[in-house]
Amino acid sequence: MKLSVIIPVFNEEKTISEILRRVSEIKIPNVEKQIILVNDGSTDSTESEIQNSSIRQAQDKIQNIKYIKHQKNQGKGAAVRTGIANATGDYIIIQDADLEYNPKDIERLVLPIKNNSAQVVYGTRLKRLPRFFKDEKTPRFLLHYMGNKFLSLLTSVLYGQWITDMETCYKLFPVKAVKHMDINAKGFEFEPEITSKLLKRGYKILEIPISTNPRGYDEGKKLNTFKDGLIALWSLLKYRFIN
Questions:
Q1: Closest CA to 79 of 9, 171, 12
Q2: Exposed/middle/buried for residue 84 (C-beta within 10 Å: 0-12, 13-18, 19+)
Q3: pTM for the predicted model, two decimal places
């Protein structure tokens, strides 16, 4: 089995070296790994971090790494689409360039694929109640939690499969499912679009609980709860009735 890990990057100068190091160190038995790093028009020192340290360190450890740079920022969805177009693996997983998601969880997500017990696996952060003194300790993050739960519930109702975390970054799916899929998303609406189209194609999504280390907006979090939430809502409704 070969796994393509797509890392979309936009203005992550503080974390790009570390996340690439962590991903490059993952070793999964009987799984070959490809890393696709897509710099989506970063305007900070992400590019110099990549060129001076991250890429070189990773290339010392693994040979199968591909670096692509967008000249202008196009959005996470556009970066992931570029990654999909360049994937040579049997399966794809998305890895954000910040340090919210722990790459060590990737092996746990791959295991059901290796055991032939699933074709699509999501890492869910939300198979739980709110943590008022940790993840949801501020009103903004509690709203973020409730918005995600609502969108996941709507996904379940519209598409007929129970989903607890539609917006998760960790989506593991077969390349054959998306290579000829018409994906339109340029931004964060990639999450509802890919989920909608996988479910409409008959893929069952297995969810595995993961833990995350959420960062604050003062640390660089880019998701806009209201704007991106409304776009996700529209995407779920739209793709329920059109391709």
A1: 9
A2: buried
A3: 0.90
- The total number of residues written for the chain in this structure: 243
Yes or no: say if 94 and 15 are a contact pair by the CB < 8 Å rule. no
User: Rounded to a whole number, what is the largest CA-CA distance in the chain?
Assistant: 48
163, 206 Cβ separation under 8 angstroms = no
Contact in structure between 91 and 4 (CB atoms under 8 Å)? yes
Quote the crossing angle between the two packed helices 190-200 and 139-159, to the nearest 10°.
20
**Conformational region of residue 191, where left means phi above 0, alpha means psi within -120 to 50, and beta covers everything else:** alpha
Domain CATH code at residue 83:
3.90.550.10
For residue 131, what pLDDT is reported? Answer: 78
Q: Cα 30 vs. chain centroid, distance in angstroms?
A: 23
Name the token pair of 156. Answer: 């379940």
| Residue 77 CB partners (closer than 8 Å, separation 6+) | 183, 185, 186, 187, 188, 189, 190, 193
Q: How far apart, in Å, are the Cα atoms of 83 and each of 89, 93, 108?
A: 11, 10, 22
Domains of the chain: total = 1
For residue range 179-208, what is the model confidence (pLDDT) as tens digits?
889 999 999 899 999 999 999 999 999 999
Of 59, 52, 50, whose CA–CA distance to 19 is shortest? 50
Which residues constitute the domain of residue 229? 2-241
CA atoms in the 13 A half-sphere facing the CB of 190 = 22
Three-class secondary structure of residue 28 per DSSP: coil
